[in-house]
Amino acid sequence: MESPSSHHSHKTVSLGFGVLTTTDSRTAGEDESGKVLKELIEVEGHHVARSGLCPNRVPEIQSVLRAWVADPEVNVVISSGGTGFGPRDVTIDALEQMGGRKIDSFGERFRALSYEQVGVLALMSRSALYLVDRHPVFALPGSPKACRLAVKDIILPFVPHLVGELEKP
């Protein structure tokens, strides 16, 4: 039987990330959330294998996500934007339609941490984690502050173990 310490130990490796911003209003130069995500990923010794902006339309979001999870350089995808309740907030809808497995614990924990910072407004986020073709795809709000919170406090400490589990035969 595997000991708890060996089960939770995964060698530290540099993971390849895809960083996607879904937006109808920002350009690459105005994408503060994307900049924050890239910086945090690289500071931890990982690398950004793919990045870009995508319009808030389900087919376009799905097309990018399918291409990135098929890319051997991408282990993890983080998207920012499109997680609210507005009519243009369709990132979660795109992920749901892709048939991946939703991991509820991520969204629950993110909203709990967000509540400490912004109060009841944290309930306006549908942020989520889906497993798409054995790749974690995190959907975060477009706020740089929310992206920083999710990446520093949840994603980077958790994702090496998650990827290790998903890569098992």
Explain the overall architecture:
The protein has 169 residues and is of the alpha/beta class. It has one domain: MoaB/Mog-like domain (Molybdenum Cofactor Biosythetic Enzyme, Chain A). The chain has six helices and six strands, in the order αβαβαβαβαββα. The protein has helices at 4-7, 32-43, 58-70, 91-97, 104-118, 144-166; strands at residues 16-22, 47-54, 76-80, 101-102, 128-132, 135-140. The protein has a six-stranded mixed beta sheet, sandwiched between helices. Helix 2 links the parallel strand 1 and strand 2. Helix 2 (32-43) packs across helix 6 (144-166), helix 3 (58-70) packs across helix 4 (91-97) and helix 5 runs antiparallel to helix 6 (144-166). The longest helix is centred in the C-terminal third of the chain and has 23 residues, at 144-166. It is globular. The protein starts with a helix and ends with a helix. Residues 1-10 have low confidence and may be disordered.
